[in-house]
């Protein structure tokens, strides 16, 4: 009797499904399958901002996922050319995000001697993890170290004679992003401003 009732409910759901999908679902399901198929770190269906999905397309060929190790918001641990997010995850540090970024992603003197490729791999795994977090609408505290890495790369490129052209990648623009997203660490802001003035 009970079994029969469940079957009837199931049948009702099946027959209702096409009606629902004819109305509102097609665009969303199309989108989710496009996102799910696009990259191993996009674990959810939340629509990504265009800038993020552009990054996902660029990163996809460079990133591998370890599904048996999860990091923030259950995103798989991502690796770019030997650098894993889990090995530089700010959230497993005892330091606050900006403090962690300043010490872990410090640049050498002279600035032009920095290993740009290594900074780029570190940024890759931060951006991939942020995209995964956004796909499930998770907490975006990762933005502080992510912006800081972009800021450091912009400084290094400038010191190496190849300053970025895009407005969004200028040192001072990224400085503002770092500061705006870390109001609780304002005691460190002068240190970040000093870095923005050190471009050689
Ligand atoms: C994936 O993560 C598991 C669990 O931490 C680990 O044992 C394994 O070595 C990792 N695989 C790779 C390819 O890094």
Automatic annotation (TrEMBL):
Keywords assigned by UniProt, alphabetized: Signal
Keyword S-adenosyl-L-methionine: no
Range of residues in the leader sequence: 1-16
Pfam families the record matches: DUF7143
Entry annotated with the keyword Signal: yes
Sequence ranges assigned to domain DUF7143 in this UniProt record: 42-199
Superkingdom: Eukaryota
Matches recorded under InterPro entries: DUF7143 (IPR055567)
The name this protein goes by in its record: Podospora anserina S mat+ genomic DNA chromosome 7, supercontig 2
Organism encoding this protein: Podospora anserina (strain S / ATCC MYA-4624 / DSM 980 / FGSC 10383) (Pleurage anserina)
